[in-house]
Design a protein that fits this description.
Layout lengths: L1 H30 L3 E7 L5 E3 L2 E8 L4 E4 L4 E6 L6 E2 L4 E5 L2 H29 L5 H26 L2 E3 L4 E6 L6 E2 L4 E6 L7 E6 L1 H6 L5 E6 L6 E9 L10 E7 L12 E7 L4 E3 L8 E3 L2 E3 L3 E3 L2 E3 L3 E3 L2 E3 L2 E4 L2 E4 L3 E2 L2 E2 L10 E2 L3 E2 L39 E4 L4 E4 L2 E7 L6 E10 L3 E6 L6 E5 L10 E3 L1
Parallel strand pairs: 1-36
Antiparallel strand pairs: 1-35, 2-17, 3-12, 3-16, 4-11, 5-7, 5-10, 6-9, 7-8, 9-11, 12-15, 13-14, 13-16, 14-15, 18-19, 20-21, 22-23, 24-25, 26-27, 28-29, 30-34, 31-32, 32-33, 32-35, 33-34
Helix pairs in contact: 2-3
């Protein structure tokens, strides 16, 4: 009986161990499952633009508050809000009784001063009046003349006339109202000239990115489905204390929309001239062309010419190698080693110098790697064993961005085409079908654009 129990117990243990082994195998299989992905190399040439979305109100920048030169009672207002006006048109007048009386007084005073002067002049010619008396009467006459001119000037400004062709934006007073000198009566603009500006608010960062003459695309709610071209004509050099923002003016170019008015809301997308990005690419000091980089370290199709120059697996430089032969401080010939730690046939020559597609010179990579002082070849990286960095910004597809939140998000990249790496990125803006990334892809070799939903940091991948 004990023997039967022992046999049953052993059988159960065997089944249990087998099942555990199967579970572990399944777990290992899951953890090592390779995810197929698509990559977007970050060494292309397509250019995009980091745009800035802003909004504001339309203005003509010549809005004017019109008022009377002197105080008085408003006798008439010739226009109302929204009326079109022409240069020189009379818009309002004061009751002229008081100002006419002032002009008359000044005129009479001037005429009396003229008579006094003429009388003293004749007496002086007859040697009866002194020179001092003549000079005093002449001065009094000149003063009276200027007072008369001033009174006439004030009377001419007892009327308000339009300063330009445009529209009445606001009427701020009514007929019969007593107003003081300088009290605004109308607000007008020169909209008839069509010089419309979209005045927008800018954050500190946006202000720093845009410059005068940057291009912009403008949308107006009153003209749905249509966009207008514009140009940034100026930006303020000081912060608006009321809004806490900077201002910029975007001038409408070309044909002006008919349905536009002062204060109307508008949106614009500005393309900073300095915001050009290399889509999925950044070519530092060396410019890339179809996998070829020219710059301080120029590479062509896996060939690098720099301080350490390589040609098809042959390297010449401080440590020069040819087909597995190295000539330099450490020279090797066909599997033979001479010198201090000199290497053979594709081994290491000199102070860590490598041959035949290895690294030559102080950690320099060749044959599609990197040659020279941080110079890049075929989209790889170099510089004393360092990886070349892309400075951004980058334009990437929407589907590559995972869980974006405001100005941050994350993407998956790979530097060896075998392992996915999760990195956090900073979002600078959005275009029609792209996201502008300003930070986070400096060390990325390729961006994973398909299959990201199945990845975790460190997941093995295969490129489809």
């Amino acid at each position: 009986m004990k023997t039967i129990h022992a046999i049953l117990l052993l059988s159960f243990l065997a089944v249990f161990v087998a099942s555990c082994g199967d579970n572990k195998a399944a777990e290992n299989k899951n953890t090592t499952e390779v995810i197929p992905v698509k990559l977007l190399p970050l060494n292309g040439q397509h250019t995009g633009t980091a745009t800035i979305a802003v909004s504001g109100q339309f203005t003509t920048d010549d809005e004017t508050m019109l008022s009377f030169k002197t105080g008085g009672i408003i006798q008439s207002l010739a226009v109302k809000e929204g009326d079109a006006i022409k240069t020189g048109q009379v818009l309002a007048t004061l009751n002229p009784t008081e100002i006419n009386a002032q002009v008359t007084q000044a005129q009479l005073g001037f005429e009396k001063a003229q008579r006094d002067y003429n009388r003293v002049l004749h007496l002086y010619q007859d040697s009866v009046a002194t020179l001092e008396q003549l000079q005093n009467t002449k001065t009094a006459m000149n003063i009276a003349e200027e007072q008369f001119k001033s009174a006439e000037f004030n009377r001419s400004h007892s009327q308000i006339r339009a300063t330009s062709n445009g529209y009445v934006l606001r009427k701020l007073a009514n007929e019969g109202q007593l107003v003081q000198a300088g009290t605004p009566i109308f607000e007008t603009n020169g909209a008839a000239a069509g010089n419309w500006l979209l005045r927008v608010d800018l954050s500190n960062k946006q202000w720093a990115e845009i410059q005068a003459q940057d291009k912009a695309t403008i949308e107006i709610e009153s003209v749905p489905g249509k966009t207008f071209e514009g140009t940034v004509v100026r930006k303020t050099e000081g912060l608006n204390q009321t809004s806490g923002t900077f201002k910029a003016d975007i001038r409408l170019n070309g044909a002006k929309p008919a349905a536009i008015a002062y204060g109307m809301f508008g949106k614009a997308t500005i393309e900073p001239a300095g915001g050009k990005v290399k889509n999925q690419a950044n070519g530092g000091d060396g410019k890339s062309e179809a996998g070829r980089t020219t710059g301080d370290g120029r590479s062509e199709a896996g060939r690098a010419a720099g301080d350490g120059k390589s040609e098809a697996g042959r390297t010449t430089g401080d440590g020069r190698s040819e087909a597995g032969r190295a000539a330099g401080d450490g020279k090797s010939e066909a599997g033979r080693t001479t010198g201090d730690g000199r290497s053979e046939a594709g081994r290491t020559a000199g102070d860590g110098k490598s041959e035949a597609g290895r690294a030559a010179g102080e950690g320099r990579l060749q044959a599609g790697r990197t040659a020279g002082d941080g110079r890049s070849e075929a989209g790889r990286a170099t510089g004393d064993g360092a990886t070349a960095t892309n400075n951004g910004p980058w334009a990437i597809p929407y589907e590559a961005l995972m869980e974006g939140d405001g100005s941050t998000g994350y993407v998956f990249i790979t530097n060896d085409n075998k392992t996915a790496k999760k990195v956090t990125v900073t979002i600078g803006g959005m275009e029609k079908d792209q996201v502008i990334i300003t930070k986070g892809l400096e060390q990325a070799g390729a961006l994973i654009i398909s299959g990201s939903a199945y990845l975790t940091d460190g997941s093995p991948i295969s490129v489809k």
